[in-house]
Amino acid sequence: MKIYDVAVVGGGPAGSLFAKCLSDKFSVALIDKKSDSENSFKKPCGGLLAPEGQKALSKLGMNLPKSVLVDPQIFSVKTIDLDNDIIRHYQRMYINCDRHKFDRWLFSSVGENVDKKEGTVTKIEETENGFTLTYSKDGNEETITAKYLVGADGAKSSVRKFLNPRFKCRKYISIQQWFYDKNPKPFYSCIFDSKNTDCYSWSISKDGYFIFGGAYPVENGREAFDNQKKKLTEKGFVFGEPVKTEGCLVLRPQNSRQFFMGKGNAFLIGEAAGLISPSSLEGISSAIISGMALAEAFSEGKNILKIYKRKTSNLRRKLIFKNLKVPFMYNKFIRFFVMKSGLLTIEVNEDKV
Ligand SMILES: Cc1cc2nc3c(=O)[nH]c(=O)nc-3n(C[C@H](O)[C@H](O)[C@H](O)COP(=O)(O)OP(=O)(O)OC[C@H]3O[C@@H](n4cnc5c(N)ncnc54)[C@H](O)[C@@H]3O)c2cc1C
Question: The whole model's pTM is what?
Fold first, then answer.
């Protein structure tokens, strides 16, 4: 059995960028359960690439191919406050992507020096040689060993569970439904509705589909989602029959104890480490930035964890700082004054073509 220097679990933005940026003096296995097949696992996501993620990719000279973009690109968000019955529009500079194609593009950009493996990691053990991982695909099991382990396996990380079973981060259940878009015009919206969630919901038009989703308390997520759909139908949203429904956990860190960067020779990057914005749930940029930071830490010295923590201290501080924005967005009384003030809003005349 080949012994690798590094085994990476998860080839989303964090895992792919880490493997891509890591020096080729390390032998690496990158394992992901996704594939190009129609029935592959697809990460439920709004697929909006924020300016910070765009900046991180540009630092690597990576330009987004047209095949990853969807139609249309939308430059404003319609913010709907159901508590105060106010609607405002704000400018946004997101790139509207096909999330699965985006992930597959990043994965395909990882160099040939990395052994890319398709399968689901089902078992992790610590041995005298490092870590032994078992992964399976279509009923066939394989095992690999590596000196270092990297968990890039997202919100429900099994690597994090293995390293730190008692780790706790605030979490929500995120539900998204896809519909054939029958709304008069494509749009992007952001919905606040404290009766159903203390987080938020969104809708986005993509290539003829209309996606509606939100992050809800884990206990009654589905009920809250259905209640919100009813309220939004009354506000003019056109849903129809869902084409597909998807769901997953999403983390929402409240303080620095809700990040976990690793232990010994094992490290966590991206949402597996809790690195996601608590105000907007935007996590692609943090995944990319932390993946790049860990790759640099590997090249810089022996105490990789210490270097990695130092390199991500700004990112973690920024994410925790975003909690200060939370009352302005999520407290319905403060939000009323912010939205009523018209600060930073743009006027959109929806009747004009
Ligand atoms: C509904 C929803 C909408 C969102 N919308 C946005 C958005 O518009 N913009 C934004 O920036 N962020 C958004 N986020 C957050 C964002 O999706 C995540 O924070 C981001 O994907 C984290 O990247 P990652 O690489 O850390 O993890 P992930 O993208 O979750 O990647 C983890 C990878 O690990 C693989 N994996 C997991 N377990 C195993 C296993 N056992 N074996 C093998 N492989 C495994 C998966 O296949 C996956 O490829 C959204 C989140 C949700 C839930």
Answer: 0.97
For the CA of 44, the nearest atom of ligand 1: 1
Mutation probe of ligand 1 site: the residue of 204, 282, 290, 292 with most atoms within 8 A of C-beta: 282
Question: How confident is the prediction for the chain on average, in pLDDT?
Answer: 96
Shared domain for 229 and 290, answered yes or no, is no
Are 179 and 237 found together in one domain? yes
Residue 272 resides in a domain: yes
Residue 150 lies in a domain: yes
Domain count, the chain: 2
Enclosing domain of residue 208:
76-95+170-252+326-346
Distance from the alpha carbon of residue 43 to the mean position of ligand 1, in angstroms: 6
Q: How far is the CA of 235 from the centre of ligand 1 (A)?
A: 31
Q: What angle do CA 135, 164, 122 make, to 5 degrees?
A: 10
- Let me know: does 283 contact 275? Beta carbons within 8 Å: yes
pLDDT digits (tens, 9 = 90+) for 133-187: 999 999 999 999 999 999 999 999 999 999 999 999 999 999 999 999 999 999 9
Q: For ligand 1, say whether the CB of 203 is within 6 Å of any of its atoms.
A: no
Tell me if 98 CB under 6 Å of ligand 1: no
CA of 310 to the centre of ligand 1 (A): 24
Same domain, 234 and 292: no
269 C-alpha to center of ligand 1: Å? Answer: 11
Q: 89 and 144 in one domain?
A: no
> Do both 17 and 161 map to the same domain?
yes
For the cut 70, the answer to whether the pLDDT of residue 351 exceeds it is: no
User: Residues 58, 133: one domain?
Assistant: yes
